[in-house]
């Protein structure tokens, strides 16, 4: 109520990136003190029946994760466990720092319940983020089943555009993270729609080169691939085949929607492409791809469903389609942090929490 009736109307008058940076600073402050953590837990924590899930050997206290792109510098890991989340995906992180694309990097489309995202992988770079995560006190997180995934992308600059340099770039971050033993799982983001070099590794001919190089780096953690949602099914299927062949653990389905014509209210968006769409326009394409992937591959892949989870209903659709875990960002921005507790409660109410298990 507080968020939807007071905070959100105020925040939605301000620049989205400014609001995001302020919210991050507030989140860091709230996470720094046991009293504020307890207050947030009392307001937003989930205290219902056990809905924990174990996926690829990792226990998630709830099956809902914050998707990559919100806590891109890994600053919020002390507060996020207190709003009902079972984990978060930090990043995407890149080998070198990225300042982001020219502004505007975020544009709200409230009628479509979406955001145009043109962030260009703004982040401080993998080394600084590793140092931060290593030095963050984890007493409020340890042993609670709050999972830290880390999304890895290619640095958004001209240096990483040649394919061999792009592969080196991913490998640098992957190797550094593994060597530092930071993160519980890793996601290889091959589907950022707004960066130098575009989505080169969505090409089924190039993905084997990337996965082959990554496979040579020892890891004890599950590795997933973040999938695009606007490519033809034959291409998607051939990426899945490659991911299977290289023995990766699963897929995150999926990234932003590039198709402005899929918007319910087309006039709200600019005439030409200015970044990928998050939120509601992602819901149907991602859920359909989750269902097709589950049909084709059975339990071979872990599937993390993301895209347009704005309500309990849309979250449960992802599990019914075959997702093991569900991620979200835009729903939390539009509905507030209280949404996560609602999702957990609805999930617990469905088959005693065994839906999709
Ligand atoms: C502000 C913002 C930044 C994002 N940045 C990333 C990113 O760095 N890496 C990534 O894999 N996905 C990124 N995404 C995509 C989300 O992780 C997610 O796949 C997509 O937004 C669909 O989920 P949603 O509808 O719940 O927002 C970003 C999304 C938003 C809204």
What is the C-alpha radius of gyration, as a whole number of Å? 19 Å
Strand content bin: 15-25%
| Bound ligands | flavin mononucleotide
Shape, per Cα inertia axes: globular
Largest sheet strand order: 3-4-7-8-9-10-12-13
CATH level-1 class: Alpha Beta
DSSP, total strands: 13
The CATH superfamily is identified as Aldolase class I
Q: Based on the coordinates given, report the CATH architecture.
A: Alpha-Beta Barrel
Largest sheet, strands/sense/barrel: 8 strands, parallel, barrel
CATH T-level topology: TIM Barrel
Mean pLDDT: 94
Description:
It is built from eleven helices and 13 strands. It has 357 residues and is α/β, with parallel strands linked by helices. Strands 3-4-7-8-9-10-12-13 form an eight-stranded parallel β-barrel, surrounded by five helices. A three-stranded antiparallel beta sheet has the order 5-6-11. α9 (312-321) links the parallel β12 and β13 (325-328). The protein is globular. It binds flavin mononucleotide (FMN).
């Amino acid at each position: 109520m507080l968020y939807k009736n007071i905070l959100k109307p105020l925040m939605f008058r301000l620049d989205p990136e400014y609001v995001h940076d302020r919210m991050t600073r507030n989140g860091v402050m709230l996470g720094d003190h046991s009293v504020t953590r307890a207050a947030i837990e009392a307001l937003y924590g989930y205290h219902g029946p056990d809905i924990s899930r174990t996926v690829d050997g990792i226990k998630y206290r709830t099956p809902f994760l914050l998707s990559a792109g919100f806590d891109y510098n890994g600053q919020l890991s002390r507060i996020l466990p207190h709003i009902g989340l079972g984990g978060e995906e930090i990043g995407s992180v890149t080998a070198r720092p990225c300042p982001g694309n020219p502004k505007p990097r975020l544009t709200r489309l409230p009628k479509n319940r979406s955001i145009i995202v043109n962030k260009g992988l703004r982040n401080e770079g993998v080394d600084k983020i590793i140092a931060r995560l290593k030095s963050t006190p984890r007493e409020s997180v340890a042993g609670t089943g709050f999972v830290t995934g880390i999304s890895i992308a290619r640095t958004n600059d001209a240096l990483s555009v040649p394919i061999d340099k792009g592969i080196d770039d991913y490998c640098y971050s992957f190797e550094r993270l593994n060597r530092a033993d930071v993160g519980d799982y890793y996601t290889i983001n091959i589907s950022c729609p707004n960066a130098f070099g575009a989505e080169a590794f969505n090409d089924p001919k190039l993905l084997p080169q990337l996965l082959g190089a990554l496979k040579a780096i020892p890891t004890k953690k599950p590795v997933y691939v973040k999938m695009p949602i606007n490519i033809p099914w034959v291409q998607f299927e051939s990426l899945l085949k490659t991911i299977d062949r290289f023995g990766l653990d699963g897929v995150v389905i999926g990234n932003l929607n590039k198709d402005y014509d899929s918007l319910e209210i087309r006039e709200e968006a600019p005439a030409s492409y200015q970044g990928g769409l998050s939120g509601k326009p992602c819901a149907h394409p991602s859920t359909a791809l989750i269902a097709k992937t589950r049909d084709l591959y059975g339990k071979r892949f872990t599937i993390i469903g993301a895209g347009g989870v704005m309500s309990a209903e849309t979250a449960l659709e992802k599990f019914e389609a075959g997702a093991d875990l569900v991620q979200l960002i835009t729903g939390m921005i539009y509905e507030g942090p209280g949404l996560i507790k609602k999702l957990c409660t609805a999930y617990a109410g469905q088959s005693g929490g065994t839906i999709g298990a």
